[in-house]
């Protein structure tokens, strides 16, 4: 009996087989347990001898089972350690870092340059009311400038006859909001997204502008010119720039000027400050008295200049990016090429 069990234990292939052997020997109806139960019918002397022998056998089988089980667990662990080892001296796999989008980078640069000149940042919503985007800027409902803006309109319920909200077509509504919140004097820029229904190599339906607004007791076009020249020198990193103010018209400025910068293209490279070409970079002017009044500021006491420039356009120029649409296509190869490391 003993030999039989010890042999079977030694040959058991896995813990389940061991458990079967344990039940067969020591379980409630196991061979040894049954033999134990027969002890009652034996003579006292025989019972003592057989009982002691059975107990020893039981302990021996128990110990053999435990030892074999422990050996199996050791072997299994050994096996796992062999198959799951890890070389902690291997170099890590490199991870690609994200980059700063050129538009974000240029917006940062512009904000920093104007901050040096005392301009803080103002903000407004991208979904704007008709009043802020147009009326307050001296563009009444029938004004032809409304058509030129190719506006995206938000939907209103059929029985709601208030004018619909719009996706702001420029950052100029932030002028009004800044006047209402801060009152005069003011020196702010407002960078942000604007929207117009337009799409080709140099236009996307969403693009970015920076609005500038300075209001004080005696502000003139001369201040505007100085600020813009300082800005261009810093932004294009050149010692000398030449700006040309071309008379123009915006409903919210009087007088109005579009501003061109002297430049040249040499072998596909843009040179700022030299050459015979002029490139338009922004719209500007003296804030119209009606606009000051709409913002709650008295035009007899205060005056100001405003300008609006296209961020995307400036980014294309400074970093030699040929197609505006690429900015918004989220092509990772493009973003890695033109993006700025964080
Ligand atoms: N809002 C004008 C545009 O989008 C730019 C501008 C801003 C012109 C401020 C004058 C003053 O074209």
TrEMBL record:
Q: Which organism is it from?
A: Albidovulum inexpectatum
Q: Where does Mg(2+) bind?
A: 254
Protein name listed in UniProt = Phenylalanine--tRNA ligase alpha subunit
Cofactor entry: Mg(2+)
Q: What is its EC number?
A: 6.1.1.20
Give the taxonomic lineage as stored in the record. Bacteria, Pseudomonadati, Pseudomonadota, Alphaproteobacteria, Rhodobacterales
Instruction: Give the quaternary structure.
Output: Tetramer of two alpha and two beta subunits.
Q: What is its main location?
A: cytoplasm
Q: Name one GO molecular function term.
A: phenylalanine-tRNA ligase activity
* Presence of the UniProt keyword Cell membrane in the record: no
Q: Which Pfam families match?
A: Phe_tRNA-synt_N, tRNA-synt_2d
Q: Which family does it belong to?
A: Belongs to the class-II aminoacyl-tRNA synthetase family. Phe-tRNA synthetase alpha subunit type 1 subfamily.
Name one process (GO BP) from the record: phenylalanyl-tRNA aminoacylation
State the InterPro entries in the record. Answer: aa-tRNA-synth_II, aa-tRNA-synth_II/BPL/LPL, Phe-tRNA-synth_IIc_asu, Phe-tRNA_ligase_II_N, Phe_tRNA_ligase_alpha1_bac, Phenylalanyl-tRNA_Synthase, tRNA-bd_arm
> Where is the protein found, in the record's own terms?
Cytoplasm
């Amino acid at each position: 009996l003993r030999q039989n069990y010890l042999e079977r234990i030694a040959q058991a292939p896995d813990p389940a087989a061991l458990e079967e052997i344990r039940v067969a020997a020591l379980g409630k109806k196991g061979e040894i347990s049954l033999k134990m139960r027969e002890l009652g019918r034996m003579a006292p002397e025989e019972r003592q001898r057989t009982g002691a022998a059975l107990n020893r056998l039981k302990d021996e089988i128990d110990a053999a089972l435990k030892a074999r089980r422990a050996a199996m667990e050791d072997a299994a662990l050994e096996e796992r350690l062999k198959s799951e080892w890890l070389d902690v001296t291997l170099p890590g796999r490199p991870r690609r870092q994200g980059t700063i989008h050129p538009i974000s980078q240029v917006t940062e640069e512009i904000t920093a340059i104007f901050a040096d000149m005392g301009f803080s940042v103002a903000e407004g919503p991208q979904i704007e009311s008709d009043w802020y985007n147009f009326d307050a800027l001296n563009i009444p409902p029938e004004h032809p400038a409304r058509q030129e803006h190719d506006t995206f309109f938000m939907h209103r319920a059929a029985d709601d006859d208030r004018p619909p909200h719009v996706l702001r077509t420029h950052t100029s509504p932030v002028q009004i909001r800044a006047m209402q919140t801060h009152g005069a004097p003011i020196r702010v820029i407002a960078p942000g997204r604007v929207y117009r229904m337009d799409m080709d190599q140099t236009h996307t339906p969403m693009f970015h502008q920076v609005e500038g607004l300075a209001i004080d007791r005696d502000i003139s076009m001369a201040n505007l010119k100085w600020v813009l020249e300082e800005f261009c020198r810093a932004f294009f990193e050149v010692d000398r720039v030449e700006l040309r103010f071309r008379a123009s018209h915006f409903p919210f400025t009087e007088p109005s000027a579009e501003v061109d910068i002297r430049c040249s293209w040499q072998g596909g490279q843009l040179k700022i400050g030299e050459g015979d070409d002029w490139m338009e970079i922004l719209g500007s002017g003296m804030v119209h008295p009606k606009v000051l009044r709409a913002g709650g500021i008295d035009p007899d006491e205060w005056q100001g200049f405003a300008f609006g420039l296209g961020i995307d356009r400036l980014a294309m120029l400074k970093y030699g990016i040929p197609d505006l649409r690429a900015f918004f296509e989220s092509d990772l190869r493009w973003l890695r090429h033109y993006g700025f490391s964080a």
